[in-house]
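Field reference: "sequence" (input) and "structure" (output). Example, GNAT superfamily N-acetyltransferase:
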Amino acid sequence: MEQASPTGPNRHHALKVERQRMGEYTYLVAWNGDVPLGHCEVLWQECKSAEVRNAYPGCPEINGLLVYRAEMRGRGIGTALIRTAEDRARDRGVEWIGVGAGDDNPSAMALYERLS
């Protein structure tokens, strides 16, 4: 994972795996053989946004969606990750799932709006 999407001393991938072990998150990774293409995580505790938490208490959130290489974007990898996250939520009996994206990420927002 670090070779495909280096996080340096922050060790984000290792931290995400550890949070998954604790049951707080599900760390989803899209693969092509042994090559990771992208990832996202599902925050099961509830959404980071206070506005969403207030409107939908306990609603989990899809967060941190990233397709590593620019030339692979637009090929359905992000969609597959989102659909897998939605399936995992349904498996847990969750009716709603939020998505998190910064205002500085219009392509993610466009994807979420297209899939909603």
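The longest helix spans residues 77-91.
The mean pLDDT is 86.
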